[in-house]
Design goal:
Elements: E1 5-8, E2 14-25, E3 35-40, E4 46-52, E5 57-63, E6 72-74, E7 98-103, E8 109-114, H1 119-124, E9 129-134, E10 143-152, H2 167-171, E11 179-182, E12 189-192, E13 197-204, E14 211-214, E15 221-225, E16 228-233, E17 239-242, E18 247-253, E19 261-266, E20 274-281, E21 312-320, E22 328-331, E23 334-337, H3 338-345, E24 349-351, E25 354-355, E26 365-367, E27 372-379, E28 385-389, E29 394-399, E30 402-403, E31 409-410, E32 412-415, E33 420-426, E34 431-437, H4 440-444, E35 448-453
Parallel strand pairs: 2-5, 4-9, 10-13, 12-20, 21-27, 22-25, 26-35
Antiparallel strand pairs: 1-2, 2-3, 5-7, 6-8, 8-9, 10-11, 13-18, 14-17, 14-19, 15-16, 15-18, 19-20, 21-24, 22-23, 27-33, 28-32, 28-34, 29-30, 29-31, 29-33, 34-35
The protein binds CU-O-CU linkage and copper (II) ion.
Length: 454
């Protein structure tokens, strides 16, 4: 984003200026109005921030909102002081104030940034953007596309429905919208050239919606999840499933004929299947006769490999929500029946029996720096939870006790109702890190914990 780089330091590391402020953005066509949003740099999504692996990035953030905020760099394994969690890693940035974020992203891939204060409202109003760390040697493609997926809860006149933190959204599946956007626009048709190879980088920035994109007559090859390379593979049923916060990078050969169409369907919510995008092939002659014969595998990132022979196993139990079996929970050190906890504090979710209050808490675990850990996570609820760990990527080893193919690295693992998963990682960056459900209303309703690495 050239216009944002307004100065170069002596070290020649780019300085981005990033300001959050209220602005207008057209989502629905006229006669609806432009939607009043909160945005980074006046755009939704915010500008794509591009960085080079291992090189210092300096982002001068300014808060032009009327309330405090912070910026969290989702998925980046950077120093704790730059993680953007208010109270835990930095003070909130008050209206009119600045905060300098400076870090060296160690991994190449697709990451993103968003507020971490009143996030269920701040993200839903439009504050989010992609951050790409470029590979030294990217795979050969014809086009490299970033698609930031969101869904909005809009009135017919284009205004955002203001019922943030609504009872049913906290207790059930989170704030689902009624208007899906890609890069801030409703997407119906997308023009492609027959024979071209796309790199399609998908990011789910929605508060709660899960996307399940089914490619049918195309064959998506997944090369990375959550910014981390994975053995190139075609996912089961040619379906890419992304919970809130998650990313997938695909290599997609546009194999249709000139003038043809390829439809990608989102079939996640039963009975709400819709056509997510229609690739429209131009009438040009195919760019090439057969798909490009160039390697697609990405070079691995420098993540420490957990030592499973030495890893300590820790249990992580997710409970609560409506229709849950949870009876009591600890909140601020006191035991409550779930009903009174909801009535008095609007908390209904727990991790290991504790409902979070805000972001600052006693650690759930204290991990020894450099040691390997395995978390056996159990979703003992009737709802989906994309569970996100800050500052670390873990390997997803099993799901429901079955080995997961390619044991991908991830920073977020999506657990369906009553599922279990085992993930392993090396606790290698010191500090207090958040672990929470990325359904932002669930986090607000208590599904968060702090993990200390010391
Ligand atoms: Cu995407 Cu705790 O964040
Ligand atoms: Cu959740």
């Amino acid at each position: 984003m050239a216009p944002l780089v307004c100065s170069m330091k002596a070290s020649a590391s780019p300085i981005y200026r990033l300001k959050a402020f209220p602005s207008k953005h057209r989502i629905l066509p006229a006669p609806a109005e432009e939607t009043a949003v909160w945005s980074y740099a006046g755009r939704v999504p915010g500008p794509v921030i591009r960085a080079r692996q291992g090189e210092r990035l300096h982002i001068g953030f300014e808060n032009g909102l009327e309330e405090p905020t912070t910026v969290h760099w989702h998925g980046l394994r950077i120093a704790n002081a730059m993680d953007g969690v208010p109270g835990l890693t930095q003070p909130p940035v008050a209206p009119g104030e600045h905060f300098d974020y400076e870090f060296e992203p160690p991994d190449a891939g697709l990451f993103w940034y968003h507020p971490h204060l009143r996030s269920s409202e701040q993200l839903a109003r439009g504050l989010y953007g992609a951050l790409v760390v470029e590979e030294r040697d990217p795979p050969r493609v014809d086009r490299d596309l970033i698609w930031v997926l969101d869904d909005w809860r809009l009135q017919d006149d284009g205004a955002i429905v203001g019922n943030f933190g609504r009872r049913n959204d906290i207790r059930n599946e989170g704030r689902l919208g009624n208007t899906v956007t890609v890069n801030g626009k409703r997407l119906v048709d997308f023009a492609v050239r027959p024979g071209e190879r796309l790199r399609l980088r998908l990011l789910n920035s929605a508060n709660a919606r899960v996307f399940a994109l089914r490619f049918d007559d195309l064959t998506p090859t997944v090369v990375a999840y959550d910014g981390q390379p994975v053995e190139p593979h075609v996912p089961e049923d040619k379906r890419v499933v992304l919970g809130s916060g998650m990313r997938a990078e695909l290599i997609l050969d546009m194999t249709g004929d000139p003038g043809a169409q390829s439809v990608v369907v989102d079939d996640y919510y039963e009975e709400f299947e819709y056509s997510f995008v229609r690739f429209q092939y131009s009438r040009d002659k195919p760019l090439r006769e057969s798909p490009l014969d160039a390697p697609v595998r990405l070079a691995p990132n420098p993540i420490p490999e957990p030592d499973l022979t030495k890893a300590e196993t820790q249990q992580v139990l997710i409970q609560g929500g409506s229709q849950g079996s949870l009876e009591e929970a600890i909140y601020k050190g006191q035991t409550y029946g779930v009903r009174e906890l909801w009535r008095e504090h609007r908390k209904i979710w727990t991790i290991n029996g504790i409902a979070a209050h805000g972001m600052v808490m006693d650690p759930m675990f204290t991990l020894k720096r450099g040691n390997s850990y395995m978390w056996a996570i159990k979703n003992d609820t009737e709802w989906d939870h994309p569970l996100h760990l800050h500052g670390h990527s873990f390997r997803i080893l099993t799901r429901n006790a079955e080995p997961v193919p390619h044991t991908p690295w991830a920073d977020t693992v999506l657990l369906f109702p009553n599922e279990t998963a085992e993930v392993a990682f090396v606790a290698d960056i010191p500090g207090d890190w958040l672990f929470h459900c990325h359904i932002l209303e669930h986090h607000e309703g208590g599904m968060g914990a702090v993990v200390r690495v010391a």
